[in-house]
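Hi Q.,

Before the meeting this afternoon, I wanted you to have the zinc ion prediction in hand. No need to reply - just skim if you have a minute. The sequence and ligand are here:
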Amino acid sequence: MTDSQIRERVLAEVDALADELVQMTIDTVRIPSVNPTYPGIDQAAALGGETRVNEFCQPLMEAVGLETDLWEAEKGRANLAGKFSGAGGGRSLLFNGHVDVVPPGPDANWSKAGPWSGEVIDGKIWGRGSCDMKGGNAATLIALKAVLQAGLHPKGDVILEFVVGEEMMNTEAGTGAAIERGYTADAAIVAEASGPPHRLGIIPASPGLLYMALTVKGKAVHASMRDELIRAGGGGAAIGVSSIDKAQIVMDGLRQLEEEWGQTKSHPMFKRPGHFTIYPGLVQGGPNGPFVISEESRVEYAIWHPPQEPVEDVRAEVEAHIARVAATDSWLRDNPPKVEWLLWWPPFDVSPDEPICKALEAAYTGVFGTEAPYYGFAAVDDGAFLNRAGIPAITIGPGSLLVAHGPDEHVEIDDLIDAAKIYALAIVEWCGVAS
Ligand SMILES: [Zn+2]
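Predicted structure with the ligand bound:
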């Protein structure tokens, strides 16, 4: 067969498997699998959902001819890996996806169909996890099945892994555990949603994400003394200090730094200037209500930094800025805000010249007939941990972050089919095939 005959045959097989792809997505969406470490949920009740999804998927993988491995790195949370042994002489390819999802929020917010319904309306599959990312997982399995049904045998190994714990960076239970168990390859594709800005574009880079907590002290006193604290001629800090007022000073300073980052922080894969931000997503103060001057405030930040910047530099820059702001206020000078770094999700930054990018470009063009768009991932994903383990990992997948994590999450069926086509051609391009 010529290359174009191979391509036509593989694409036709994906089309023939479209119903199966849709059904696997629906069936897995119908199995609730909220990440059991997610804050604010009944964690004991959520435990086991991830395992149930993977128990459901294991026989589907085996039916395609994969040798499977269902194992727990953390109690009650089973990962699933499947390996198809190559004929030899080709490069190996790993497909990574996660089975955990974020909580669906109140049912009343779902306007089209319930969060665990998996209903098909208007050419879309609705439900939590449809886009992020049970649809992507299904597309990887259908892609391999299509290649095999086309009568082709990949020369390199093809490995699929459906892992737990991505949504809360429990990598030691999920992707990190899979790497430790020996699931590595010459390159990896993470089937997370590519949108926005494009459908199914190639994503070789992601930001790093820091989670920071800021604690600012005040001094409690009866709230009727407020005027003494803020008016000229009052007793001031000798009487009391509102931690909320002082936290506001630091927050204003960080807001200014965020503005500055809009101009100063960039990366070639992030075309719009200003992707890198400092967001205070949780603000607490006045623990005893409005009749006591607040004695402690806590602000939690998500800080998105450019992939090429060492995390130590980013932390130092933020800390130095907070110190500069604190130096402008006599109370904050004597009672410096406490900074805690709670978490760091590392970035990834793969060169578009990497061979896996070239293989994906060819696959994309084979499906759409146009040149593949490249851009950075708005969010973070498990590609970071694969890249850190030395496996060049690219994100490309069906759906859009605009609908992931929100109510009315859905995925376009056309996106699923086109994703499976790209994955199938990527297997052909990357692993090579024997017929
Ligand atoms: Zn995801």
